[in-house]
Design a protein that fits this description.
By secondary structure, this protein is of the alpha/beta class. The chain is built from ten helices and ten strands. It starts with 15 loop residues before the first helix and ends in a 7-residue tail after the last helix. The mean pLDDT is about 90. It binds zinc ion. The site of zinc ion has 7 residues, from helix 4.
């Protein structure tokens, strides 16, 4: 699999789904230009979209990270605009398939993928097949409960992995620690923006005790989530991507410590916990893997 062209823009939320669909159509044509291809040569379009969504009907259902979106038949809208067979997939699930086919999962049969950024998403490959579940909602790793006495999650539950360890929540928990009187080199000095998870990871690496404590607690929660996945799926690889994975050893050393301490010996002996090999391309390669797996006829 080879990437021939890439075009990147911030999502245009100005008119809800209409502006985003128009933007996708325009960007797809621009990426074909970059690759030196014409639309007539394209057999399939695969879209890795924020969920929740139904992969069978191609409908996205009120995604919390897409302002103004209700129930949107994204697959049909794109097929009507482009005349190209389209498949949509949950972005984190598609990334799991990309990592399995083209990244750290090459040559394996079982992989768990976690993406840790604004939220926490994931996907699971079991015996070489992507786990979809009964209604296509399988693999919601971010909403596994880590602490049933923990903070509320936007999904309505409490103590979810996402509520404890997403980039947004690492920043929020650090802010709360400052408000309780914690001392840090990142303490606000005026009207500057509050520190992000990236700032906190950087300060932790430079020895800031409060930043280290908050980041380590989040990394331990991720380690606990990984142990749960190891116990349930017995994977060969647990791959972690997303912005928070850029913290490198600060994250991975703690996650591996938790795995070494708490995972059962038999599944622990066969698992590797790694950073995604595909880096920023994991979502694109995931969409390519979804298109390659599509058994529908190419013509509409
Ligand atoms: Zn949740």
């Amino acid at each position: 699999m080879r990437l021939l062209g890439r075009v990147e823009e911030a999502t245009d939320h100005s008119c809800g789904p209409e502006s985003v669909v128009a933007q996708v159509v325009r960007m797809m044509r621009a990426s074909l230009d970059v690759a030196g291809l014409v639309p007539g040569r394209v057999q399939r379009l695969a879209v890795a979209s924020p969920g929740p969504l139904d992969v069978r009907s191609g409908v996205v259902d009120t995604p919390p990270n897409m302002p103004g979106w209700g129930v949107v038949p994204l697959q049909r809208l794109l097929e009507e605009s482009l005349g190209i067979r389209t498949r949509i997939a949950n972005d984190a699930t598609a990334a799991a398939l990309g990592e399995f086919r083209f990244g750290s999962g090459r040559g394996t049969r079982n992989l768990v993928y976690l993406t840790i950024s604004t939220g926490i998403g994931g996907g699971v490959v079991v015996d070489g097949r992507l786990l979809e579940g009964t209604s296509g909602a399988g693999g919601e790793i971010g909403h596994m409960t880590i602490d049933r006495h923990g903070p509320p999650c936007k999904c309505g539950s409490v103590g979810c992995l996402e509520a404890l360890a997403s980039g947004t929540n690492i920043a929020l928990r650090f802010q709360r620690a400052l408000e309780r009187g914690g001392a840090s080199c990142l303490a606000p000095t005026g009207d500057g923006a509050p520190p992000t998870a990236r700032d906190i990871a950087l300060a932790a690496r430079h020895g800031d005790a409060l930043a280290l404590a908050v980041f380590r607690d989040a990394a331990e929660a991720i380690g606990t989530g990984v142990v749960n996945c190891i116990h349930i799926f017995n994977p060969e690889v647990v791959a972690i991507g997303g912005g928070v994975s850029n913290a490198g050893p600060l994250l991975f050393d703690t996650v591996r410590e938790v795995v070494d301490r708490y995972a059962l010996p038999m599944p622990r002996a066969v698992v590797r916990v790694v950073r995604t090999e595909l880096g920023e391309e994991v979502g694109l390669m995931g969409a390519a893997a979804v298109a390659a797996d599509d058994r529908q006829p190419a013509t509409l």
